[in-house]
Amino acid sequence: MQITGNHQMARIVRHNDESVREGYIRNGGKEVKFFTSALKAFQCNNRIVMAQRKHLDDFLRGRIIGRLECGRTQLEVSEELGIAQSVISRLWQRFQDDGNVSRCYSTGRPRVTTPNEDRYLTVTAKRNRRSTASDLSRQLSSATGTTVSRQTVYRRLGHIGLYARRPVRCVPLTTTHCRLRLAWSREHALWTPQQWSCVMFSDESRFSLQSDSRWTFIWRAPGTRYHQENTIEPHRYGGAGWLVWGGIILGSRTDLHVQSVTMTGHIYRDVILEQHIRLFRGAMGAEFLFMDDNARPHRA
C-alpha cells in the first residue's frame, strides 16, 4: 500500500508473521520504525472501511456490550470486530443511559398522532361518513389538541382501509321493501312472455337546470360500495327543472310526458292516469297490470 503526500512517497511494510507487531516506513531511502500502536490503528481502520455504512444487528450489539462488560477496552473490541471506536463509544454510552442498545427504526419525521388519536379518526369517520378530511382534522384538534393536515388524515384512514369515494345514488330500500319485492319476484318468476305483454312499467326523471358537481364523498372500505350505509338518495335538485314521464310495455310504449312543474297527486291522476294509462287499460282489458315506482305522488 502506498501513501502519497505532497513531497514524499511512503510505503508501509507489514510482516506476514503474526508475532511481529511492528512496521516500517521507507521514506527517502531510509527505514523509520512504525510504532505498534500506529500499526494497530492502521489495521483497524482497514477493517472499518470494509464494514462502514453497515447497520449493526441486535446480536452484534449484544456481543459488543458483553465484551465491554467483561473488562475489554473499546479499542480492543473495535480492533477485534472491525467496528469504529466512535460507534462502540456511542453504543456503550447509550447502554449506560437507558440500558437499551436495540436499533430504533425510524424514517423521516416522527408520527404526529398516537394510536388512540388514530382510533378516534377511524371512529369519527365511520360515524359520519360524509365528513371531509378537513372536518376530521378540526374535530381531532378540538378533542385532543393535536393539529394534523388533510394528507395525514387520508393516510391514517387509508391504513385501516377507509378511502374517500363517491357514494352510490339510489332509492333507499327498507327491510319491508326488500321482502315484498323478493316475494313478488318469486311469484312471477315463471310467467310467460304472453303474460308479461300485459304489464306496463313506468318511471319519471327530473332534469335540473342546475348542475350537480358530485363533490360529496364518503369514507368506505373496498368491496362495500352497495352497502346501505354507503348509499344516498337521489339528489333533490332545487330551482327550475323539467320532469319527463314515460311508460313501456312489451312491443309498445307511451308518449313522453314533459312538464316544468313538480309531480303531484292531482297531476298524476288527471294527466298521467287519465290521458295515458286509461287508453292501454281499455285496449287490454282486465288482464292489464300497471307498475309504477311507488313514489309518494303515485300513492296520494
Automatic annotation (TrEMBL):
Q: What is its main location?
A: nucleus
Transposase Tc1-like domain location, by residue? 118-188
Provide one Gene Ontology biological process annotation.
DNA transposition
Q: Could you give a GO molecular-function term held by this entry? A: DNA binding
Cellular location(s): Nucleus
Pfam family example for this protein? Answer: HTH_Tnp_Tc3_2
What domain of life does the native source organism fall in?
A: Eukaryota
Please name the Gene3D superfamilies in this protein's record. Answer: Ribonuclease H-like superfamily/Ribonuclease H (3.30.420.10), Winged helix-like DNA-binding domain superfamily/Winged helix DNA-binding domain (1.10.10.10)
For this record, the Gene Ontology CC terms, alphabetical, are:
nucleus
Q: Which InterPro entries does this chain map to? A: Cro/C1-type_HTH (IPR001387), Homeodomain-like_sf (IPR009057), RNaseH_sf (IPR036397), Transposase_Tc1-like (IPR002492), WH-like_DNA-bd_sf (IPR036388)
Name of the protein in its database record: Transposable element Tcb1 transposase
Species name: Araneus ventricosus (Orbweaver spider)
**What gene codes for this chain?**
TCB1_511
